[in-house]
Amino acid sequence: MQIDKILTQLDLDSHISQFRSFFSREDSLYIEGDQELHYRYIKALDKIEFNAPPKVIDFFSIKNHLKKHGVLNFEQIFELVKVVRYFRYFRNKKLDCIIGEWIEKIEIPEKFLEVEKYFDFQGNFEENLDETLFGLGQRIKEHKGEISASLKRLMGSSKISGYLVDTQVHFINNEECLLVRGGFNHVLKGAVVGRSTGGFFYVAPDIILKTKEKIRYIEQEREALFYAYAKEFSQKLSELLPFINYIDKEFSKFDNYQARVLFARSKDLQIIKSKNHKNIVLKDFIHPALQHAKPINVDFSKNILMITGVNAGGKTMLLKSILASAFMAKYIIPMKLNETKSEIGNFKDLEAIIDDPQNVKNDISTFAGRMQQFSQIFTKKQALIGIDEIELGTDSDEAAALFKVILDDLIKKGQKVVVTTHHKRLAALMADREDVELLAAIYDEDQRRPTYEFMQGIIGKSYAFETASRYGIAHRLVDEAKKVYGDNSEKLSLLIERGSELERELKQKHQQVDEKLNELEKKERALKEQREALNLELQKQEALLKQSYEEAINEAKKAARGGDIKEIHRAMNKANKKLPHEQKAEIPRDIEFKVGNEVKYHSQSGVIVSMKGKNDATIDINGMKVRVKTKHLKPTKIVKQKPKTDIRVNVEKKAGLKCDLHGMRGDEACEVLDKFLNDALVNGWDEVIVYHGIGTGKLSHAVKEFLKHHPRVKKFEDAPAHMGGFGAKIVTL
Q: 616 - beta bridge partners?
């Protein structure tokens, strides 16, 4: 197929032109080689964030120069440098995918680096790497400074100031000039290099000629050195010609990949390739030439798709869309469709018989031209053929018989054909074949206009009379035409309309089912996402817990290795802080505790023996009375109070439990200390340490008074100096 012709016929010119603009350099649309492998690379690249490659020229002339041992200019050399640097940029990303594996194989020779280092990222030669060139550059700067100073002195002269139009230095034909009025030659010697639109003169003063001549000599020296470098670089690159051929080929391949990926991202398109079959299933496809179009949904799995129905109802655009999708899939060009629900087969050729072939110059009629086009498609194999208005140019009854035979023969040759027609007779002749799919453009009877939607399995009415009325033909003429058309023909149209109506009802039912399925799918996706989110949160919390316990264990190990008791306490406190705080469930406050209730306090079971209001209770735990807050109790069952029994339990003395009251008020500290001592008694501690600090002495006094009157405190005394001294108390229970 002729690509330019098919692009014009299918209205793809603009889309392909935009796509080509994403290439770094001009290339063909088709990627040579294994299309499946190319598609894998494109999809892998689509998952990566990357910068577009620089615009570069084709390497054909560069490689020819190097083959003939010619001398490249710096611009040509920098084109090679740009490509190598881009591959290095990708290599430095350290990608863990097939793209990374591919780029990793591109080894840059050391000899190329010897050339590359002389160019900055704008392509300028790094003159500071050559002492002579750097010196020449500095001399040019000095001379230009002299020229600037000379011109300023000249403009400041009282003799010439009256002739100056402005006080700027102008560059005309690469010469520094002053803009002066006529008669300047009496006070200023120089050469006129141009005239302004106002009739003034641009004059290059003679006073700077010597300096400019010096600059020219230096420039010639620089050019000679530049040429020497270009010759040296070209010699090195000639030896690297196999490498240049290699990166040229790899860059062309990568350029094809990145153009497709970045074009798809810019237009929110999908990248899909043709599959190894002959079916075309399009879901939510939108032709790129259409704006705000209704998505196309069509299943073209049979050999022939025959599209009938209302005039101006979108039949031709549907035909173009089917062929356009096949073309873009063949060349892996991004398009707008539902990627997961669409499938497009692979065809060796694409042929479109769309335009009127009538040509007065060549003395050929419409029908004769169509026959020429048909004679050519008989030579094709495994082709997808689109024929718009197949009956164009001849009698409808004769055409129906002729084109039925033509279509039968095309099917035998393995072709796949899309046809639009207004011939109900042709459609009826083809409808009895199992490999023919009928599709009808739908007309909205209420709105009296096409819907641009299609129904499968029916022959559609053309609605010629309705279309004529809609576009301004008088109703009396339309009514008269209907009479001429005849009753029998009208009955046939009514049958077609009834079939279309039934099909529409079926479509509505299908649509309702699809909507319900979509809702279920959305709910399923939401549940799946919620489950995944919960799993991620669970994994995160597990990791945090593991980290917290590991840190606490490490701190505990440090404490165990410590010899100093004070240091041990400090390390243990640090370890306790690293442990995650236990989330305790709140007991609903509508629970009312009474004397005799059996309750649970931490891990101990007991019975309430007395209550002080609703918030405070005294419980009996195996003969030991403990005063607690009711919010820390859990109800079990109501039982009778057990008789008091005195039990003496010998518990191994334990140390290391502390209570820190620093910064608390007296009443607050007493409440915390009360709970602390109760917990210590329940857990079997008989010696604890309480830190209250020294400060003003108020907190110390409150603690002493509380300990004196606590029924379970046997004695207390100041802690040793290394454990807090006067600021802490060792309490024996």
A: 612, 629
* CA–CA distance, 440 with 432 (Å, rounded to integer): 16
The 3-class secondary structure across 129-196, one letter per residue, is HCHHHHHHHHHHHHHHHHHHHHHHHHHCCHHHHCCECCCCCEEECCEEEEEECCCHHHCCCEEEEEEC
CA distance 116 to 125: 10
How many Cβ atoms sit within 10 Å of the Cβ of residue 464? 15
CB atoms within 10 A of CB 57: 14
Distance CA 384, CA 259 (A): 27
Under the banding of pLDDT at 50, 70 and 90, the label for residue 434 is: confident
Contact 298, 454 (CB under 8 A): yes
Read off the amino acid at residue 508. Answer: Q
Look at 384-388, 456-460, 578-582, 671-675 and tell me which has the smallest mean pLDDT. Answer: 578-582
Nearest-CA neighbor of 700 among 683, 724, 676?
Answer: 724
Q: Please tell me whether residue 361 adopts helix, strand or coil conformation.
A: coil
Residue 719 to residue 731: CA distance in whole angstroms: 9
Helix, strand or coil for residue 99?
A: helix
| Cα 442 from Cα 445, distance rounded (Å) | 9
Cβ atoms of residues 180 and 163 within 8 Å: yes
Residues 6+ apart with CB under 8 A from 183: 163
| Amino acid 363: pLDDT | 47
Structure tokens at 135: 């010196």
How far apart (Å, rounded) are the C-alpha atoms in residues 658 and 554? 21
Q: Is the pLDDT of residue 635 over 90?
A: no
12-50: per-residue pLDDT in tens? 999 999 999 999 999 999 999 899 999 999 999 999 999
The DSSP letter of residue 119 is B
Q: Is 5 exposed, middle or buried (0-12, 13-18, 19+ CB in 10 A)?
A: exposed
CB atoms within 10 A of CB 203: 23
Count CB-CB contacts under 10 A for residue 259: 23
**Do the Cβ atoms of 306 and 437 come closer than 8 Å?**
yes
Residue among 442, 448, 499 nearest 314 (CA): 442
Find tokens 């000039």 and name the residue.
177
Outline where DSSP puts E strands in 494-632: 597-601, 604-612, 616-621, 624-629
Sheet with 416-420, strands from edge to edge, namely 349-353, 383-387, 416-420, 304-309, 436-444, 449-456
Give backbone dihedrals phi and psi of 598, rounded to 5 degrees, phi first: -85, 130
8 Å CB contact between 613 and 620: no
> Contact 536/544 with Cβ under 8 angstroms?
no
368-372, 519-523, 552-556, 568-572: range with highest mean pLDDT: 519-523
The CA distances from residue 569 to 106, 552, 565, 683, 720, in Å, are 61, 14, 6, 19, 14
SS3 719: coil
| Residue 22, CA distances (Å) to 46, 84, 518 in order | 15, 19, 36
Helix axes 60-67, 74-91, angle to 10 degrees: 110
Considering only CA atoms, which of 291, 297, 286 is closest in space to residue 335?
A: 286
pLDDT at 549 (0 to 100): 76
* Whether the model pTM is above 0.85: no
Contacts 24+ apart (CB under 8 A), 555-564: 564/722
Question: Residue 64, Cα to own-chain centre: how many angstroms?
Answer: 41
Place of tokens 């002492």: 131
CA dihedral 156, 162, 166, 172 (to 10 degrees): -90
- Indicate the pairing of strand 201-205 with strand 190-195: antiparallel
Show the 3-state SS of 274-308: CECCCCEEEEEEECCCCCCCCCEEEEECCCEEEEE
Q: How far is CA 280 from CA 43, 276, 469, in A?
A: 22, 11, 36
Q: Which contiguous run of DSSP H or E holds residue 500?
A: helix 487-561
